[in-house]
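An example makes the point: we let one protein speak, the chain in one-letter code, the fold tokenised, and here it is:
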Amino acid sequence: MIKVLDQSTINKIAAGEVVERPSSVVKELVENAIDAGANAVTVEIKEGGLSFIRITDNGQGIEKDDVPTAFVRHATSKITTIEDLLSVSSLGFRGEALASIAAVAQVECITKTAHSLTGIRYEIHGGKEIASEEIGAPTGTTIIVRNLFYNVPARKKFLKTAMTEGSYITELITRLALSHPEVSFKYIINGSNKIATSGNGALKDVIYHVYGKDVSANLLPVKRDTGEFGAEGYVGKAFVSKGNRSFEHYFVNGRYIRSNIITKAIEEAYKSFVMIHKFPFTCLHFKLDSTKLDVNVHPAKMEFKYAEGEKLFDFVKDCVRQALLQDEMIPDVSLRTAKEQRAITIEQQRKSTLHVPEPFEQKAREKHNQDIFNSYEGVVTDPSGKDKILSGTKLPLSEQTFGNLNDQTQPTITGNESTMSQQKEVFPERKPAPSGPDNTTFQMKIPQQEQRVQQTLLKKENLTPDDKPPLKEEQITLPVEQFISEAARPAHRLIGQLFRTYWLIEYDNKLYIMDQHAAHEKVMFERLMKQMSEKNVISQQLLPPKVLHLDNIEHTLIMNQIELFRQTGFDLEDFGDDSIVIRSMPDDIMGVDPQQLFDALLNSLLDETGSISIDFFVEKLSGMACKAAIKGNWDISVQEADALLDELLTLENPYNCPHGRPTMITLTKTELERKFKRIQN
């Protein structure tokens, strides 16, 4: 006998699709708050949200007469017809959230609109109205949810511990804060503040508040708009990674959504940047054409379909890849322990770094300063016309050099015209050297270092000394090139080999340490990839040709992917009766047995996909490169190490081997001086 279910049972069943656990309640209520125009949202939970959830916002509130209707299923202000789903931009639109929550919990709603004198307090338990009364309240809405699943104990049994359920809510608040940096979030657990964001719209500030300095200091910006697609946000450097995907955040039109397309594109872009089984940090906001987007494929609106998935994949992958290539990503290691780092951080907040030299260093520095001063060739001319050496003063070097004397001195200048014009061009904003109280004057000659800087800049601008432009003070210091660059290469000082594995290179007050195996492995890998892409693999003809008898499935798969086999050096033909003939094979690619390679490619085809995945192909090539590369504990010459550095310069990503390990790390001079107590913090 078929019966129509009563409304209470219908509501409880429907609630199961939307309200799976306490985090589902928080998600629906916070999204409603954002849709209501709130720029400040406070979330408070107790016992993992099982006993108490309170969401307070400063949005536009709900009209008094609309409050009871808001708790009816499919009651919404977001859409009116099915066509509205094609352009909906709000986070929630089905009108199921409040009704579903009220069906399985004790709910209290306090709300007030800006133009109302008083608000309304509305209480509903298990879908039944309990109370409705006017109350004094600020503009906005507060919803309190108590005793979740009190009337469906079977579902409550499947929930996890309060701590675990609370962690799900923490993860949710993190995503919401990252997806809406313009909203100030405050998150309270059992009376303790856990997360607080400013709501100033700066995404990087939110990342700092949530993940701290170590993550926020190692981000690379992403910003691109093609008209059809838009992307903005940050991706982490390769070493900012985890063993799971909890660091991967991306949002589509302001909504947190799971997408196999976007996830795969991000991880493809990071291939060879991060180590195997590690996942990167990303926080990306995507703008997509809403008419090609369907977010209604999942009851909680957590997944979506896009009409042109392949184009979206290419866009995301290219955005992330270009961001990773825009910056030098050599890890900067620290010699400090975690305890030392914390102490230094605290001290740095109190005062700036103080350099305390040894006594003998102090004397050397004083002599060095005097030598620099003497390089200006200060010559004093007294009224009698006799030259005499300008006597030293106790002023700092800058004041000695540029004559910042007291107000009683009136500066005048005499001297060689070309010298003084040159001086004005080097230091255009500085006043001329002064005369002394006895009307003596002196002339200064530009130090050789500044002359060299000026000549370099003139050469760069293709100018002559007669038409040279004024030299800005910031131009006195020549720019420092990235370590991995053609411009910096001549300045690399190769010191030698350490532990028969690592090479030490000095550049720009830093010590670079190169892993000879990882670096050579990367070079070999890129060579193989280039050979494959250019179909330039050297093959060896088999005499006689080799005939393989396969089953029907194997034969079909190989024939469908025959072009890929040819790219890897195999010359195959159909031989009939589910057989193939191999006329040539790759000529022992970097020590790998061609028969083993063929079998591995065939086994990959027999997987569920029926195609050779990029992951598999890269894995095989990286394995080849690893076997062919020089190893640790191998002696190689300085010339060989130098040539290896040259080859690294030609690579798109020279910073990581195919398995994601760094090819080199760097240690600053400052770090070493700290260890030798030359610098104190």
